[in-house]
Design brief:
The protein has helices at about 40-55, 100-105, 115-120, 205-215, 220-234; strands at about 1-10, 20-25, 85-100, 130-145, 150-160, 165-170, 175-180, 185, 190-195, 195-200. The protein is of the alpha+beta class and about 230 residues long. Helix 3 (about 115-120) packs across helix 5 (about 220-234). The longest helix is centred in the N-terminal third of the chain and has 16 residues, at about 40-55. About 25% of the residues lie in helices and about 35% in strands. It has one domain (about 1-234). The protein has an eight-stranded antiparallel sheet. A two-stranded antiparallel sheet has the order 9-10.
C-alpha cells in the first residue's frame, strides 16, 4: 500500500455522539462548533485508536488509558449506560484511499485463473487487473464492555469501487469468524495486532478440503486466498 489518504471518520455512541456522525477530511480540516458540541470527542475517537496501537502488548484490542482516559468503556459511551454483562460501546469508522500494486499481489503462489478469481471473489475487475489500482476502504470497529472489560466485538472491512466487497469479522471468546460478501468464509483464519486483523488461510481447514476435493484448492478457495492478499495489501 502507498499514498494512503484518510478521507473520513464516523462515530456512533461515542461520548456526545448518539447517532452515526460522519466527518469528511481534507489535507487541512477545520472543525468549528459551540462548547460541548463534540469537537474534542471527534478528535478523541482517533486518539483512542492511536493510543491502542502504541501499546506494546499486541493483545490489547482497545486501551482507554492515556491521551483518552476513562475508568471504563461505558464512560466513553453516549449516555454513560449502566453496568451489565454485555453493554454496547462506541463504533468508529475510518475511510481511506490507497494505491495497491495489484500485479505484485497476483505474483503470489497459487493464484487461480483470473476469470474464476473474478467470479468467485465478487471482484469483477480482477478478470483484467491493472498493474496498480486506487482502492477505497472503510474499516469499522465495534466495541462492547463484557463483564467490565472493554473488547472489540466486530470488525467490518469494506472495499468500495465499482462494487462493494465486504469482509466481516465477528469476535467472541472462542475466537474470530468471518463472512465474505455475506457468506461464511471458513477458510480464512484471523490473527490480531491490537484491533488490526491479519488474514490468512487456515491450513488445517485446507488439509480437510484437499482430502475431500483432491490436491487442487478449487476456484473458490483460491479466490479467497487472493482477495485476502489484496485486502492485506490495502
Amino acid at each position: 500500500m502507498s499514498n494512503a489518504k484518510l478521507l473520513a471518520v464516523s462515530v456512533e455512541r461515542f461520548k456526545s455522539f448518539q447517532k452515526t456522525t460522519r466527518i469528511e477530511l481534507a489535507p487541512v480540516t477545520v472543525i468549528l462548533g459551540r462548547n460541548n458540541s463534540g469537537k474534542s470527542s471527534l478528535i478523541q475517537s482517533l486518539l483512542l485508536l492511536k493510543q491502542t496501537l502504541s501499546d506494546p502488548r499486541a493483545d490489547v484490542m482497545l486501551k482507554h488509558e492515556g491521551m483518552v482516559d476513562a475508568l471504563n468503556l461505558r464512560e466513553l459511551t453516549y449516555g454513560w449506560p449502566s453496568a451489565g454483562d454485555c453493554v454496547d460501546g462506541p463504533s468508529i469508522t475510518l475511510e481511506w484511499d490507497s494505491e495497491v500494486n495489484v500485479k505484485e499481489v497476483l505474483h503470489q503462489p497459487r493464484i487461480p485463473d483470473l476469470s474464476n478469481l473474478a467470479k468467485h471473489s465478487g471482484v469483477s475487475w480482477l478478470e483484467d487487473p491493472p498493474e496498480t489500482r486506487l482502492l477505497r476502504t472503510k474499516f469499522t470497529i465495534e466495541t462492547q464492555e463484557v463483564d467490565g472489560a472493554a473488547v472489540v466485538s466486530g470488525l467490518h472491512l469494506e472495499s468500495v469501487h465499482d462494487s462493494i466487497t465486504l469482509l466481516k469479522v465477528f469476535i467472541a471468546q472462542g475466537g474470530a469468524t468471518c463472512t465474505w460478501n455475506g457468506k461464511q468464509a471458513a477458510m480464512i483464519d484471523v490473527e490480531f495486532d491490537h484491533f488490526i486483523p491479519y488474514l490468512g488461510l487456515a491450513e488445517f481447514r485446507l488439509r480437510d478440503f484437499r482430502r475431500t476435493q483432491g490436491e487442487s484448492l478449487g476456484p473458490h478457495a483460491q479466490a479467497v486466498e487472493t482477495t485476502v492478499l489484496l485486502l492485506e495489501a490495502d
